[in-house]
Automatic annotation (TrEMBL):
GO terms for biological process: L-histidine biosynthetic process; methionine biosynthetic process; purine nucleotide biosynthetic process; tetrahydrofolate interconversion. Keywords: Amino-acid biosynthesis, Histidine biosynthesis, Hydrolase, Methionine biosynthesis, Multifunctional enzyme, NADP, One-carbon metabolism, Oxidoreductase, Purine biosynthesis. Gene3D superfamilies: Leucine Dehydrogenase, chain A, domain 1, NAD(P)-binding Rossmann-like Domain. NADP(+) binds at G168, R169, S170, I234. Catalyzes the oxidation of 5,10-methylenetetrahydrofolate to 5,10-methenyltetrahydrofolate and then the hydrolysis of 5,10-methenyltetrahydrofolate to 10-formyltetrahydrofolate. One of its GO terms (cellular component) is cytosol. Residues 141-287 form the Tetrahydrofolate dehydrogenase/cyclohydrolase NAD(P)-binding domain. It catalyses: (6R)-5,10-methenyltetrahydrofolate + H2O = (6R)-10-formyltetrahydrofolate + H(+); (6R)-5,10-methylene-5,6,7,8-tetrahydrofolate + NADP(+) = (6R)-5,10-methenyltetrahydrofolate + NADPH. The keyword Methyltransferase does not apply. This is Bifunctional protein FolD. InterPro entries: Aminoacid_DH-like_N_sf, NAD(P)-bd_dom_sf, THF_DH/CycHdrlase, THF_DH/CycHdrlase_cat_dom, THF_DH/CycHdrlase_CS, THF_DH/CycHdrlase_NAD-bd_dom. The keyword Glycoprotein does not apply.
Length: 288
């Protein structure tokens, strides 16, 4: 078998087109323009690329964006002060603080300081709790939401009842991906670094969602023939003296036995950004 490639670029373009249409409608009605504030602390090169990407996509959809670049030695108090100002500003509808933050800043404290109504990452404990409770109107984390949209696109109604195995248990990808697919009536297993016989558990998956951050860890022997594989990993590696982007899945090997697979780049990554703008629009609509 040779897997169908799930085209994250094409699907994200569809999501972005929907957002663009909604924004034009809002503007035609003479209402305020939705606005996303992005905060970047420090000069991590990968973070700079992501933030630039996010701001570029904002512009393309007509969503207004404001960017705050803070020095790497910014204090926690200064960042919290900025967030308080943005929480109180009715012209700002979404707030994203790019992670990771420098060591002197407590990430959990920062996330908890964002108004849950403006938390377009879906990382605030109130929003995590609402996701756990099955609240369908909550803002949910962008990467797992992108994964869910890809699964609905690939499988439609047959998603229901499928066995999803999520590899990785992070608060920002693994756990919410498990909850979102559970909400869609999937049977869900989470596996991680301490799981016994992890490959055998993964081989039972109809749908495998891999978010561990280890280059090409998942080989063909982890995958049941015909499974759908979503690769959340983005790892920079050197191959034959050249810098390359690879996922957590050995793409060539797994593509030969899966029924569908996401590529890296061009898979989950673009969907994450599209879902950020979708969440910004949702936050805007819920604040009106
Ligand atoms: N508060 C917060 N929210 C985030 O959503 C968040 C974050 N912090 N910190 C970093 C991670 C990472 N992330 C990505 C988004 C898009 C691509 C993406 O578009 N990737 C392209 C390739 C980009 C490249 O060439 O590096 C692709 O996969 O095709 C990747 C990674 C969001 N993150």
């Amino acid at each position: 078998m040779n897997a169908k490639v799930i085209d994250g670029k094409a699907l994200s373009a569809e999501v972005l087109a929907e957002v663009t249409a909604s924004v034009s409608e809002i503007q035609a009605q003479g209402l305020a323009t939705p606005c996303l504030a992005v905060v970047l602390v420090g000069e991590d090169p990968a973070s700079q690329v992501y933030v630039r990407n996010k701001l570029r996509q904002c512009e393309a959809t007509g969503i207004r964006s404001v960017e705050h670049r803070l020095a790497a030695d910014t204090s926690e108090a200064t960042l919290l002060e900025l967030l308080a100002k943005m929480n109180a500003d009715p012209a700002i509808h979404g707030i994203l603080v790019q992670l990771p933050l420098p060591a002197q800043i407590d990430e959990q404290k920062v996330i908890a300081a964002i108004d849950p109504a403006k938390d377009v990452d879906g990382f605030h404990p109130e929003n995590m709790g609402r996701l756990l409770a099955g609240d369908e109107s909550v803002l949910v984390p962008c990467t797992p939401l992108g994964c869910l949209l890809m699964l609905k696109h690939t499988l439609g109604d047959s998603l229901k009842g499928k066995h999803v195995v999520v590899v990785g248990r992070s608060n920002i990808v693994g756990k919410p991906a498990a909850l979102l697919t559970l909400q869609q009536h999937c049977t869900v297993t989470i596996v991680h670094s301490r799981t016994q016989d992890i490959e055998a558990v993964c081989r039972q998956a109809d749908i495998l969602i891999v978010a561990v951050g280890r280059a090409e860890m998942v080989g063909a022997d982890w995958v049941k023939p015909g499974a759908v594989v979503l690769d959340v990993g983005i790892n920079r590696v050197e191959r034959d003296g050249k810098a390359k982007l690879v996922g957590d899945v050995d793409y060539a090997a797994v593509a030969s036995i899966a029924s569908a697979i996401t590529p890296v780049p061009g898979g989950v990554g673009p969907m994450t950004i599209a879902c950020l703008l979708r969440n910004t629009l949702q936050a805007y609509q819920q604040q009106r």
